[in-house]
Design a protein that fits this description.
The structure holds 2 protein chains of 2 kinds. Chain A is 63% helix and 2% strand. The longest helix of chain A is centred in the first third of the chain and has 31 residues. Chain A has 3 helices and 1 strand; from the N terminus they run αβαα. Chain B contains 8 helices and 6 strands. The chains are: A mainly alpha, B alpha/beta. At the A-B interface, α1 and β1 of A face β1, α1 and α4 of B.
Amino acid sequence: MHDYFRAWAVVALLGLVGVAFVVAVMGANRLLSPSRPTHEKLLTYECGVDPVGEGWAQMHVRYYVFAYLYVVFAVDAVYLFPWATVFAAPGFGTVTLVEMALFVGFIAVGLLYAWRRGVLRWV
Amino acid sequence: MTDLPTPSVGPLQRVAPRPLRLVLNWGRRYSLWVFNFGLACCAIEFIASSMARHDFIRLGVIPFAPGPRQADLMVVSGTVTDKMAPAIRRLYEQMPEPKYVISFGACSNSGGPYWDSYCVTKGVDQVVPVDVYVPGCPPRPEALLQGILALQDKIAAEDLGRRYRPRPLPVAALQRPLVAAPDAGTTAGGGG
């Protein structure tokens, strides 16, 4: 039981240190920083011009093919980079190479589809 | 119109003795997150100053501020047009205090070669207060380094308690909130 409380005391101490840190930093800010609010400073947007329209916007569904192409290359990269660091290591070898070739070939079908749809042409 | 709180400065900053002020100013002068307002060819020289050869990061100028609210220093480099001037003013307003402005190059100093153009602002100091002017057309990156050193000397000698003592807003500051866009349905046939 004693050990139980001692283990949690560390957590409580960490919490206290966290609270003390936030209080110290925010307090130092309150003690030191100048404050000069203006209407322009209190605006939400920081692009320099008046916002036009609303935040809600929808993309046309026909752009799905570009999102799809992105996924093709992103998934490629996600698996190729870690694979490239280990495939020459002992215990991997030909089987690993063939596996990756299969995977890239599978992904390439998606690219082939995009090419057949004609979306790889520049405008 | 909602009333804004009076400008103020933290009490410790106001009563800070000279040694403490030295430390605070020392911290501020070597941590200038810079907001690059690149408007024309001078911005290329600014970029050159941030790159490996001239490298103003060794002076504590950090060119990675994601926006005005994270920046301490605005470097206006290039031709300020009358169309751009309100945006510069607003983004300057949105920077947190204390903030500084370096006007980089002849155009932002005074309009430069376009001094008689119908649409060029005759110097960015017509819309925001400028701390350091860097002359040249365009100035070399070394000139910007010199300007940064001059600004750091200015910060070292600064008394924030005095600079931000409570006083009314300057007359140039926007005194009332922005006017909302009128509803399209109600203005039809209104005219004015």
